[in-house]
Amino acid sequence: MTVATAPVRVVIADDQTLFRSGLERLLADDARVEVVGLAANGEEAIKLVAKLKPDVVLMDLKMPKMDGIQATQHIAQSTPEVKVLMLTTFESDGFVLQALKAGASGYVLKDSRVESIVSSIIAVKSGERVMAGSVGNLVVGMLTGTNNRKELYDGLTARELEILKLIAEGVANKQIAFRLKISEKTVRNHVSNTYEKLQIQDRAQAALYAVRKGLVEA
């Protein structure tokens, strides 16, 4: 006699009401999963996890009040038995690393097929790590060293990345030159090259890029 397996209990956390409710309806058609709660931000997700003790949280990255990475970190520390599967439109390597460092068990894209999302939910429930193909290849490449650093950061050299991080930390060109023991003119040249490669115009955009790529803390 076959023993029926209990469905995986899932909480969906996403600030877009239409996406959140739409995904709930799609998942309702699969008996292997059961949506037990919906959250519109990271704070709500944390409260639902504490109350409902789901098996898996489908967690969006960018949400108001508290984003998905902060919420994931809290859940991983307070209820490590609850797995978090990041569900997002972003493929940035910085976001991948931040999510994994925060304790996420997986990372899938919002345009994935429902069957793939269900399979990912079941996989992380059983203790596996799951990542979308392109994201997974990126992370594996970063961990094994097979990815060229320039490919990850839009062609920036190691020196340009070093200067970009200092810019994001609010360090002026003169101080950057002093720290790196190079001329201020050389710093300006590197900054100009960086702006051209990233197609940005100012230090604020440079800082935003650095945060988005996980080079500095937000």
Describe this structure in words.
The chain is an alpha/beta fold. The chain has two domains: 137 residues, Response regulator (Rossmann fold), CATH 3.40.50.2300; 64 residues, Winged helix-like DNA-binding domain superfamily/Winged helix DNA-binding domain (Arc Repressor Mutant, subunit A, Orthogonal Bundle), CATH 1.10.10. The chain is built from eleven helices and six strands. It has a six-stranded parallel beta sheet, sandwiched between helices. Strand 4, helix 4 and strand 5 form a beta-alpha-beta unit. The mean pLDDT is 85.
Observed structural traits:
single chain, 6 strands, 218 residues, six-stranded parallel β-sheet, 11 helices, alpha/beta, 2 domains, Arc Repressor Mutant, subunit A
Question: How are the secondary structure elements laid out?
Answer:
Layout: E1 8-13, H1 17-28, E2 33-39, H2 42-52, E3 56-59, H3 68-78, E4 83-88, H4 93-102, E5 106-109, H5 114-125, E6 130-131, H6 133-144, H7 149-152, H8 158-168, H9 173-180, H10 184-198, H11 203-212
Parallel strand pairs: 1-2, 1-3, 3-4, 4-5, 5-6
Helix pairs in contact: 2-3, 3-4, 8-10, 8-11, 9-10
